[in-house]
């Protein structure tokens, strides 16, 4: 079977067994994004999961419907054809997925906004390194701040290109993502997300200049008021040097708190 839309099929069965076994899925509703040929789908079903598989490619959906016809009839597998970034999703408890590399960030943000108990997700290694990058390091960015604000990420397994068909040009990491409440109070999560986005869109500028450059994203006058209320030392720093607490402080000032 071909690999559509840049997808790389996981073929290493030992890796599949490890991934499917990182969390107890028995009797749980498990969301799988990008099931491909269904090798991980089968491992999850064998462990007693009720699987919701979201696949964007119609040819793969047809193949999966034939391969897993019995499981679909028994109500243990629901295959949804669509884009995981925007398709309606039924309730689920756990996520186990080999995410398409090209849309990893958007799907991750969506999953965090929906909520789940735990997720076992596969990403490009470099992507994970950005997810877990601490403040003040070269890899820190919007992804780092947004993920670390709402979840903890723990690498579990590294896979070489030979674990896939066709072989990607990069190594992959499987991680456990555990949602948690923000470590510091955030009055308005949408404002917080806008602050992080605006500042990292102007990452070479100071916080002051970055906020001023992105004033169109906020109600009139709020940027000027926040700048007057924020510590001068903070305003002179770059976004990659800010802590999660300081991002929360900026966002809360913009909401008048």
UniProtKB/TrEMBL annotation:
Chief localization: cytoplasm
MF GO annotations: RNA binding; rRNA (adenine-N6,N6-)-dimethyltransferase activity
GO cellular component: cytoplasm
Record-linked SMART domains: rADc (SM00650)
Entry's EC annotation: 2.1.1.-
Entry keywords, A to Z: Cytoplasm, Methyltransferase, RNA-binding, rRNA processing, S-adenosyl-L-methionine, Transferase
InterPro entries, per the entry: KsgA/Erm, rRNA_Ade_diMease-like_C, rRNA_Ade_Mease_Trfase_CS, rRNA_Ade_methylase_Trfase_N, rRNA_adenine_dimethylase, SAM-dependent_MTases_sf
CDD domains: AdoMet_MTases
Residues binding S-adenosyl-L-methionine, per UniProt: 8, 10, 34, 55, 83, 98
Cell compartments where the protein resides: Cytoplasm
Pfam families xref list: RrnaAD
Keyword Oxidoreductase: no
Residue ranges constituting the Ribosomal RNA adenine methylase transferase N-terminal domain according to the UniProt record: 15-181
PROSITE patterns in the cross-refs: RRNA_A_DIMETH, SAM_RNA_A_N6_MT
Cited function: Specifically dimethylates two adjacent adenosines in the loop of a conserved hairpin near the 3'-end of 16S rRNA in the 30S particle. May play a critical role in biogenesis of 30S subunits.
NCBIfam families assigned to the protein according to its UniProt record, in alphabetical order: ksgA
Family classification: Belongs to the class I-like SAM-binding methyltransferase superfamily. rRNA adenine N(6)-methyltransferase family. RsmA subfamily.
UniProt name for this protein: Probable ribosomal RNA small subunit methyltransferase A
Gene name of the record: rsmA
